[in-house]
Write a structure and sequence with these properties.
about 80 residues; mainly alpha; 3 helices
Length: about 80
Amino acid sequence: MSVTAEKKPNQAAIGQCKGCENHDHDLIHELSKRLDGPWRYDQHIANAEGRPDLQQFWREVKQQDQAIVKTLKEMIAREIKDGCV
């Protein structure tokens, strides 16, 4: 096959890994990103010493991220249980 006649890649398969669907990868990647948040928020809370309104904001954001982490873990567990399809 000539270089000009090469097959075009299947767009749906771009980025897929064998045995891992894109949506599974997305969930795991997002969980990884979100797990970094809570320790950062603790630093933000400390940096906002003397500013209770800012500290409360960072506490709320931390709680929201923790809830999202919990949901992501549940969704990943369900994907694993269902065979990661």
